[in-house]
Amino acid sequence: MSGIVPNLINETIAVKDQSTGPWRDAWRSFRKNKLALVGAGIVLFFILLAIFGPLFAPQGINDQLLKDRLKPPSSQYWFGTDDLGRDVFSRIIHGARISLWVGTSSVIGSVVVGSILGIIAGYYGKWIDTIISRIFDIMLAFPSILLAIAVVSVLGPSLQNALIAIAIINIPNFGRLIRSKVLSIKEEEYITSAKAIGMRDIRILFSHILPNSMAPVIVAGTLAIASAIIEAAALGFLGLGAEAPAPEWGKMLADARMFLRNAPWAMIFPGLAIMLTVLGFNLMGDGLRDALDPRMKN
Amino acid sequence: MLHYIGKRLLQLIPVLLGMTFLVFMIIRAIPGNPAQVILGQLASKEAVEALEIKLGLNNPWYTQYIDYLIGLFKGDLGESMRTVQPVSKEIWPYLAATFELAFFAILIAVIIGVNAGIISAWFQNSWFDYFAMVLALIGVSMPIFWLGLMEQWIFGIELQWLPTSGREDVRNPISSVTNLYVLDTIINGRFEQLGQVLKHLVLPGIALATIPMAIIARMTRSSMLEVMRADYVRTARAKGQKMFWVVYKHALKNAIIPVLTVIGLQMGLLLGGAILTETIFSWPGIGRYIYDAIQFRDYPVIQSGILIVAFIFVMINLFVDILYGLIDPRIKYD
Q1: Considering chain A, what is the average pLDDT of its residues?
Q2: pLDDT bucket at B332, cuts 50 / 70 / 90
Q3: Distance from C-alpha of B307 to C-alpha of A141, rounded to nearest angstrom
Q4: Cβ distance of B272 and A143 shorter than 8 Å
Q5: Taking residues A17-41, what's their average pLDDT?
Q6: Chain A residue whose CA is closest to B30
Q7: Does residue A12 sit within a domain?
Q8: Chain B: residue whose CA lies nearest to A257
Q9: Do the Cβ atoms of A37 and A31 come closer than 8 Å?
């Protein structure tokens, strides 16, 4: 008898060392995916750039040196200067903050609102579900950039309104995702037993259903940040987002358009910055999907 | 099948009603006094009141909405505040221009995307596969407005190979019948003009095609990889059939269903992308029409433009759904 107990303890320790669990498995599989790591690296780079970049940027957002306008890339101005003699490199660094802020905060907004609506629709069903689902259908009936334009044309052009517009257009995607997750989780035995012991709906929703629906939301959220960054830049490009002199990348492209012949660098670099950031989030999102979604494994 | 189509059409009614309501709300939801915002702060009180009466803003919202719906049923899309023309009349040339561009773009996207996907799957893990998939990855991350500008700079300004704006050579204008210039020039037998029209289509067409092309290529590849492992493909190979025919005849037929879904979805996205592409290339399409309307705060045009594009988007999705059943008899509808 006395020999069994230490054996059991040893076995428990051995099992703990192998440390399984869905999140740990996911991390292990994510770590093996080279493209995903490259994506995460790019994302991390731009996050660091957004946080610390402005401290090291050679110039401020709107420092104008008119004698140096439309100068090509050189050792002084790495990415050249724009039509107002502003350093494109510095503006791109400052712009990282705007793009990442708009991308992440709009997606967080859509996730929060979409999750609440999706949970209500999925958990309570019946007419509430019908109404919410129809609203999602209607919103998804518009090409997303068009819906964003509609929202901004109502609220008026500004960076904040562009952010709100992008958050709104992504709500139905997350709403539907969460709703379908809730519908499948709701039938699980642990939910039935939670109900049987008298747990209240709100507690079941927040302590059981929500945490169990998180994996697909993380995947979709990462990919949504990529498209939100492009959408924000598109709105900026159309003159419906950030206003001058904000160094928003899309707005920089729109300004550079007039000087394409004389100063293509003012267009090339902001575009590259958008593409790289979006590529980073896309690669990371794809990697997360492979790691977190067991159906996609192999 | 007919039952399914009927059911889908019925389901469409609340969506269409919701769409019209959302679009109807665009003017009404403007914070403050909409008429004042539309006309600007300097507008006189009389002008603001006149616009309120014209847009029916003084009535209760439900009567306004019912009037709006009745108008839509009669084909009344409102009147442009800029040109003072009925939107229903002036929208057609723009729609035709977008249709021509979108058609050209989807053609490029499907031809190149599907073939790149097939070859990537056929020679899996070859250099072509890696190269194509890296390109596809970059393609889906590409902001099309940037790609458009890069094309303008490289092929228009630096190399001067292709025109960078408009649909036609302004020195040699096209006498239009259908507003589809490719068709028009063929009808008129003006083949030198056809060449010009096609040249104008290349750059915006490629810009618009890039994202769908990348997505179609990725989808075709993964769908083909699945099918290529199937028994009937091995059987066809064992019978000694040439690999080319196995791939293009046997495998592709079965791999194409998910690809079709993506193509259908992309058609809708093209309409959204058209706004950006048309703005860059001064392409006189529906996107440009909406963009100009935004600049002039021409709300009736913004409303109707958005409504028309959304309507086409919904119809394309319905059409694609129905198409699956016809192409793949394994899909059963309730």
Answers
A1: 86
A2: low
A3: 10
A4: yes
A5: 80
A6: A154
A7: no
A8: B149
A9: yes
Mean pLDDT of B114-129: 90
Between chains, do A142 and B306 touch, taking CB under 8 Å as contact?
yes
DSSP 8-state secondary structure symbol assigned to residue A257:
G
* Chain B (288-307) residues lying within 8 Å, Cβ to Cβ, of chain A: 290-291, 294-295, 299, 302, 306
User: Rounded to two decimals, what is the model's pTM?
Assistant: 0.87
CB-based contact A138 B150, cutoff 8 Å = no
Q: Is A200 helix (H, G, I), strand (E, B) or coil?
A: coil
Burial bucket for residue A74 (CB in 10 Å: 0-12, 13-18, 19+): exposed
Share of chain B above pLDDT 90, in %: 31
- What's the ipTM? 0.86
Q: What's the CATH number where A282 sits?
A: 1.10.3720.10
Percent of residues, chain A, with pLDDT higher than 70: 91
Distance, in Å, from the CA atom of A108 to the CA atom of A103, rounded to the nearest integer, reads: 9
Q: Tell me, yes or no, whether A71 lies in a domain.
A: no
pLDDT above 90 for B318? no
The domain tally of chain A equals 1
Q: Residue A232's domain spans which residues?
A: 44-57+88-296
Other CB atoms within a 10 A radius of the CB of residue A16 amount to 9
In a domain, A22, yes or no: no
pLDDT at A271 over 50: yes
Residue A101 belongs to a domain = yes
Per-residue DSSP letters for A91-123? HHHHHHHHHHHHHHHHHHHHHHHHHHHHHHHHH
